[in-house]
Amino acid sequence: MNAVNQTQISRVCHIVKGEVVEGAELEYGPAHARFTTPALKLDDLVWSRQAPGPAFDTPLDEILDILGELGRWLERDPEGLVRQALENAIRNNPMHPRVMQRSYEMMPRIFDRERLMVQIDNELGGKTAVDGWKPVTNLLSGRSAAMRAFPARILHIIAGNAPGVAAVSIARGAVTKAVNLIKLPSNDLFTAPAILRGLSAVAPGHALARSFSAAYWRGGDDKVESLLMRPQFFDKLAAWGGDATLRSAKNYICPGFELVSFDPKTSISMIGREAFASDELLAEVADKAAADATLVEQLACASSRYQFVEGTQEQADRFAELLQQRMGTERQLASAEGRPVPGHLREEIDGLRVMPDYYRIWGDYSGSGLVVRSEEPVDFHPEFRVVNVVPVKDLRDALRFVNVATQTVSLFPDERKIELRDLLASAGAQRVTCIGASGGMEGGLAHDGFLPLARLVRWINDEG
Amino acid sequence: MSPKRKFLLDLIDKPDEAFNICESELGPLRLAAAQELFEERVQQIPLLKHRAEEAGISRIERYEDLVPLLFAHTTYKSYPASFVEKGQWERLLKWLDALSVPDLSGVDMSGVSNVDEWLDRLWAADHRVLATSGSSGKCSFLNHTAGDQDNKRRHFKYAAAWPVQAASKDRPVFWMGQVKGPNSAVEAGQFAMANWGREGAIFTLTQEPLRISEVSRMAAMRKRMADGSATPEEIAAFETESAVKGARGNEEMRTFADQVLDHRHEPIYLIGFWAQHLAIIERARERGIADGDFHPNSIIGAGGGVKGIPLPPDYKERVNTFYGNVLRPGLYAMTELSQPMPRCERGHYHIPPGLIVLLLDDSGEKLLDPVGLQSGRFAFLDLAYEGRWGGLITGDKVTVDFASKCECGRHGPVIHDSITRYTQLGQEDNIGCAGTIDAYIRGAIA
Predict the structure, then answer these.
(1) Is A391 helix (H, G, I), strand (E, B) or coil?
(2) How many domains does chain B have?
(3) ipTM for the complex?
(4) Which A residues, 198 through 257, put their C-beta within 8 Å of a C-beta on chain B?
(5) Pairing outcome for strands A19-21 and A14-16
(6) I need a surface site. Which of A339, A360, B14, B31 has the fewest CB within 10 A?
(7) Separation of alpha carbons A452 and B251, rounded Å
(8) Is A160 on the interface with B (CB under 8 A)?
(9) Does the predicted model carry a pTM greater than 0.90?
(10) Name one GO molecular function term (chain A) (predicted).
(11) Which domain holds residue B412?
């Protein structure tokens, strides 16, 4: 029976300007995860520039009311769509089912009015510029002028590794009043359509609902993307990018069609020598470092993968051992047991066993946590709850391993952030946190080095 | 070499018989030889011992017992890249030693300044270490002994053009790869010349030795470009150098293509990559030479990984049409394998007695049932190696026909001519926010 279930073909629906479109004209996916979609009608997926988008002039308060309703609808899940999306995500995602479930439980909060207002205040300077033209009164010439955070036309290429990505993208598109086409990722075909169906359920036919479409096509398909990715139809490509996504998208980026890239990132931790002050403190720091490493089962960009320890090899080994012991702990966004380390990574790690003088390994391949200590960062990408601990004489020695692909640096002790944060930022890092706080990403702060809402609108002047 | 293995390997001297032994006869012999080999190697190679202990395997009684003992192809490049970047040659030696049967600790590495010199020292001490081209930026190093190389040369002599033509040293040989250097493609060229070449009629595309340090220098430069320590002018110099090399290569290719075309009316031996054949066709078009104008007894081989080289979709048809009715032996080979598999008249690859083919599931963890047609990950135990453990899981997806007879009438199982790389199968477009963006910052995207 299992075999039958595995080969069952999923039916994916499209959302076209708020309306559900069913159909199974097209079929995609690898043998074990086939799915069908309706035929792709490109004409229906673009909004003419000859008319403003449906919600361009909808008051923000009205939008926030609807989003609040949407959050409650997602909690209630009256049509079972959220459950279906969750089940699908569990099937197609390496994330542990319990962690996936808790991620889904956190989703409604993304649509909270208060939370969204903080983002609007911090990123767009308040709602005046969203709802209309905000006067600019301090020009040197004395001219009168106004600016509006004008709604944009956004093509979203979203990531499918966490359901929050679909929700956050929809929330951002909604509060900026944009028109939005979401390209569904094959690893999360159901979350965005479920949220958009919720939007139509709580506000049938409303301008906000009509501002959203979601469809699947194979990422990088020239026949689709060369037609859609044009400044005549869209202003922005908001891409949560895998390599392949951006490889394809770069062909189409041009003046008038801008890339807003949430690109793949790696995160690290830095453990200062102060951690070795006592055994209790070291254990506490290791526990927090373990939380950073296992965050979202180490599937997120903010999950710590390399941890630089200021001390001798022996000290790094002491830390590594404690770290490994604390990795198998159930946390809000981490399971205790993880999922088995896949073959390709096992092979890499087994290769290291050839050199016991150079590498030391704690833990096994069960997936609950494995730590490799080495003199230099390992050449492979640590994932599936694998952490690479590297001793350094001075935390500044770790700066050469920081580049623009480094998102979060979680650091102990807190006060050394002051010494290191400018250097880290200069090297390319985008976020410095206390150890254990990698997961505290919050709306209203910068993301990957920029303010997303400010990039997702077009700043237009009315000059006197 | 242990006797049970030697017996199986020596069968290749009579290839028509060697490739026609039924599985029921070969199976027990292979298992016994595998046990003989395992018993010896498990004492010599720590990683094999670790694997055996972890899986609780003390004897090879079934093919399943071999699966946990196979190394990944990445094992042979598991050294930290910093060993090469920082010139830590003693450490690199120690790493290779741990994967080798012979003791390498006595090889003197003092004064070595690059990886070619490191390899030279090993060769000078008769450790014939092969390096891969390192298209991923990091070379694999695989030790093999002089005896391993002799066995491989013999295997090529009898198997390389089986069953279409037996080797005799009487024809012009055209070799499109390098002819000097510690690399299996170079080795194959040397074997071709030794086994087929007529005195004075050996043509090579280049006499420049393959420099592995060149490969690692380029990899190191790409890394420096990624971490931002390369200056704009260094990047410009690097890009210019690559362009100059490309242009010089084109000029050499044109001269070589002329030599091939000048000999097209006698039986020649010509092996190269698909892209190189396309270059010969281009030159032939310029000279107005029509399709199918080659001597029918010519041996023409095309292949090699297509490793990211953009080729027109019909490249195979173009090459086949151009050479027309010639002899086309085929060989399924790779650096890690000393007993490549020749292709029969029906286009299926036959397995030599000294090679145990293990077809695994996609993840490389379970042995697939040996019934009917099965597709999966290609793994093997090459019983020939004296220099290292010959058990390996590859990145190739193959289809094996386990039927007792091949369509050609000989005994099976055989491998179909539909080999693909797992990494090339087309990544499903799963997108995540975690990962590395080395590719972008290296400049590969911009």
Answers:
(1) strand
(2) 3
(3) 0.71
(4) 218-220, 240-247, 250
(5) antiparallel
(6) B14
(7) 51
(8) yes
(9) no
(10) acyl-CoA dehydrogenase activity
(11) 3-74+334-445
